Amino acid sequence: MKRNRRGGVEDLWTKTVRDAEGNMQTVPSARHGVGMRWRARYVDERGREHARSFKRKVDATRWLDSQTASIVSGTHVAPRDAQFTVQQWCDMWIEGYKVNRESTVRQARTHITHIVSEFGDTLLSALRPSQVKAWVARLQDSHEPSYVYALHSRLSQILSDAAHDGVLGRNPCSRRTSPPMGKQKLYVATTEQVWALHDAMPEHLRVAVLLGAFVGLRVAEVSGLRVADVDFIRGVVRPVQQWPDEPLKTDGSSQPIPIPQDLALLLSASVQRWPSAFMVTNGPLADRAGPWLIDRAVREAKKSIAASEKDAEKKLLTLPEQFSFHDLRHYLASLLIASGADIKTVQARMRHASARTTLDTYSHLWPDADESTHSAIGVVIAERMDSVGSTAYPLRTESTP
Fold first, then answer.
1. Residues 37 and 58: beta-carbon distance below 8 Å
2. What is the pLDDT of the chain when averaged over all its residues?
3. Residues β-bridged to residue 85
4. How confident is the model at residue 69 (pLDDT cuts 50, 70, 90)?
5. How distant, in Å, are the alpha carbons of 8, 56, 69, 80, 203 from that of 62?
6. What's the distance, CA 76 to chain centroid?
7. Which range, of 74-88, 172-186, 372-386, averages the lowest pLDDT?
8. Contact of 225 with 280, CB cutoff 8 Å
9. Which residues of the chain form CATH 1.10.150.130?
10. Which residues, 6+ apart, have CB-to-CB distance to 247 below 8 Å?
């Protein structure tokens, strides 16, 4: 049962009683002179009563007015909940976030480390947009724009949930505090570089390069791919899980991927040489290779290529320091686009959740359409000029007397 809505400021040092004649009069109470004199109290929108004592009546009245105004505006936070710090709320928030995949939770914990180092001891109710903007500005001095954007988005997500839970009146994060999203810096390797990387890898891990560059699998998907997930006769790869036996990144990640017969033969040859239940192993009679083993092998292969390339021509095979296994997916996308594949085809092969993701990532790889648009317009203009004979040209060039 909810309490009746009531609020007011009362004097704790006095009380009203009736005298012998039945008249009301104010007399000292049992608490007269003890503790704070004035108590403000109110009932919130959930029917809970809140009270606070003050030395001065004006302070009690001002506090009561502010709490009542917050109820009317929909930003009220119970005084008890207003004592939450950012650190305390993040600790509670991450517990509920554990319903997501382990890798997703791990990334959130990394973001929270940055957030708590800046705002950990700050009360949620005291966090201001100006503080968020100053934090973002400092981050931009030492982090990539895309990562700063991700950190701000995480803070906004956490504070939005706090507001939804009633422990924060209003989320201080908004578009005004948000940094630019930043452009993802892609490195697209050449075909020669991909094969150089393939040849520099340990022989039992070369199949990983094939699966990354020509099937488009992510490194965790490569480590989790089983031999049973590949139809070598029909030429189809069906990802089912990622390392270590976890669900794939998105629902669309499980769609079948057609591969040419030549690639199927290469994959089959690798299985015959390195027998295992998994496509990528850690050597003869060894278990499957984890993502960190593949990433480490890629780093060592890059160093090997760089050390062996002496003259300027062979330096073209050297991969940049920031190149990672994931960049093999970008190579596949560029290969498909260069061959004339449209957006939907590239989306399907990269197994993106939407075409927008494909466009945001690879739109700059599609050839410039200026020449084709010029040709289309030129055809229409030429047809018009041919239909009206020689009158069109004089109309454009004759000067007014």
1. no
2. 84
3. 123
4. confident
5. 11, 10, 11, 18, 76
6. 30
7. 372-386
8. yes
9. 83-164
10. 101, 241
DSSP string for 252-283? GGGS-EE--HHHHHHHHHHHHHS-SSBSSBSS
Residue in this structure with the two tokens 């890059």, named with its chain if needed: 302
Cα–Cα dist 72/139, whole Å? 37
Is residue 254 packed enough to be buried (19+ CB in 10 Å), middle (13-18) or exposed (0-12)? Answer: middle
Strand partners, 39: 10, 53
CATH number of 191-364: 1.10.443.10
Which helix (H) or strand (E) segment is 160 a member of?
helix 145-164
Compute the distance between CA of residue 344 and CA of residue 349 in angstroms, rounded to an integer. Answer: 9
- Which CATH class for the 83-164 domain? mainly alpha
List every span in the chain annotated with CATH 1.10.443.10.
Answer: 191-364
Distance CA(250)–CA(23), nearest Å, equals 77
Tokens of 270: 């690798």
Biggest CA–CA distance in the chain, Å, is 119
Kindly state the helix (H) or strand (E) to which residue 52 belongs, with its residue range.
strand 49-54
Confidence at 392, pLDDT banded by 50, 70, 90 = very low
Cα 55 to chain centroid, rounded: 49
Q: Which two tokens stand for residue 170?
A: 């209003």
Q: Cβ of 78: how many Cβ atoms within 10 Å?
A: 14
Helices 327-338 & 343-350 angle (0-180, nearest 10): 150
Q: Which of 279, 290, 270 is nearest to 240 (CA)?
A: 279
State the DSSP code for 143. Answer: S
Tell me the per-residue pLDDT of 283-319, one tens digit each, with 9 for 90 and over. 776 778 889 999 999 999 999 888 876 655 556 788 8
Give me the amino acid identity at 78.
A
- CA distances (Å), 133 to each of 138, 154, 155, 309, in order? 9, 14, 12, 47
